[in-house]
Amino acid sequence: MTKSVKPILGISKCLEFDNCRYDGKIIGNDFVRKLKSHVDFIPVCPEMGIGLGSPRQPIRLVRIKGKKNLYQPSTDENLTQKMEDFSNKFFEDLEEIDGFILKHSSPTCGVRNVRLYHKIGKQVGFDQTVGMFTELLSKRFPYLVIEDEARLRNSVLKDSFLTRVFTMARLRNSLSSKDETIQFFKDNEMLFMCYDKNSSKKLMDLLSSKPEELEEKDKIIQLVYNLLNRIPNSDSLFGTYQYILSMFYDRLTIPEKDYFNATMSGFSAGNVMPSEISTLLYSCALRFDVKSILSQTIFEPYPKELVQNNSERREYSLLKI
Ligand code: SF4
């Protein structure tokens, strides 16, 4: 099984950490509570960071001279510069970070569907945009895994988020030594394959033909981030499972082969869950002691205690901020 490394995650402080909302409240979140023992959180409330207290008068995003501004109607104060200064200082002080969980729809922390009013005033129209802190964050760290707490109620997005932050944390941890980086790519070969076989192969070929690329940490982070920044489809999962199966298929008995073939057909037809095949493959790898399979992260990309099968499955397109 995979070596455990704790991801370092930034988080909007009003989620489980502090009563810092405009209304003086905190927002309870079961998932964040569960994550606390598996990750190192860095909580931040940018609005408190620029000196607004809690409770406080609401703020909003307003377009002024064609640009997005953070504005407090009750005081007529433009808070844009303060927010930029606070955010830049916060980013500079961050030594390492693998991902961020943000409060949805906030003018500061929202990752989508935040109102950007057309001008100062009452009853004006608005467009949809990204919160100011989140926009600065994604510009400063373009290869950071970012999600909002509302989207993380969806089980597909939650699985994707956890897989990506734990993988990026293992990558960060491996980059201090060339041998560990090579081992990281070996251990993640099948996980990467199920995200995108062609991109994964190109990445592996590049690293074996040009090992000096392993010295370029930022480039590696970018390549891995881009590879994982999608939801694996059932065809690529099927291809990956077949590849793993081929590594011990000849050693199976005829009834075992028949059972595997029927299970794989069931997966193609959508009647068998990926986790069922994964468990079968892993138990065979254990039986035949296929070490190159047993070390693969695809079987447990993040701690099992975080697996949750009963959350929402609706929309699941990845964010593009
Ligand atoms: S959404 Fe962001 S700015 Fe607003 S209270 Fe939460 S952490 Fe603070």
Task: Describe the secondary structure blueprint for this structure.
Layout: E1 8-12, H1 30-35, E2 40-44, H2 46-49, E3 60-64, E4 67-72, E5 77-78, H3 80-93, E6 99-102, E7 114-117, E8 126-129, H4 132-140, E9 145-148, H5 155-174, H6 178-187, H7 189-195, H8 197-209, H9 217-228, H10 234-246, H11 254-268, H12 274-288, H13 291-294
Parallel strand pairs: 1-2, 1-6, 3-7, 6-9
Antiparallel strand pairs: 3-4, 4-5, 7-8
Helix pairs in contact: 3-4, 5-9, 7-8, 7-10, 10-12
The chain binds iron/sulfur cluster.
Describe this protein's structure.
By secondary structure, the protein is an alpha/beta fold. It folds into two domains: about 10-155, no CATH class; about 155-320, no CATH class. It is built from 13 helices and nine strands. It has helices spanning about 30-35, 45-50, 80-95, 130-140, 155-175, 180-185, 190-195, 195-210, 215-230, 235-245, 255-270, 275-290, 290-295; strands at about 10, 40-45, 60-65, 65-70, 75-80, 100, 115, 125-130, 145-150. The strands form two sheets. The protein has a five-stranded mixed β-sheet with strand order 5-4-3-7-8. Strand 3 (about 60-65) and strand 4 form a beta hairpin. Helix 10 packs parallel to helix 12. The model has no long low-confidence stretch (mean pLDDT about 95).
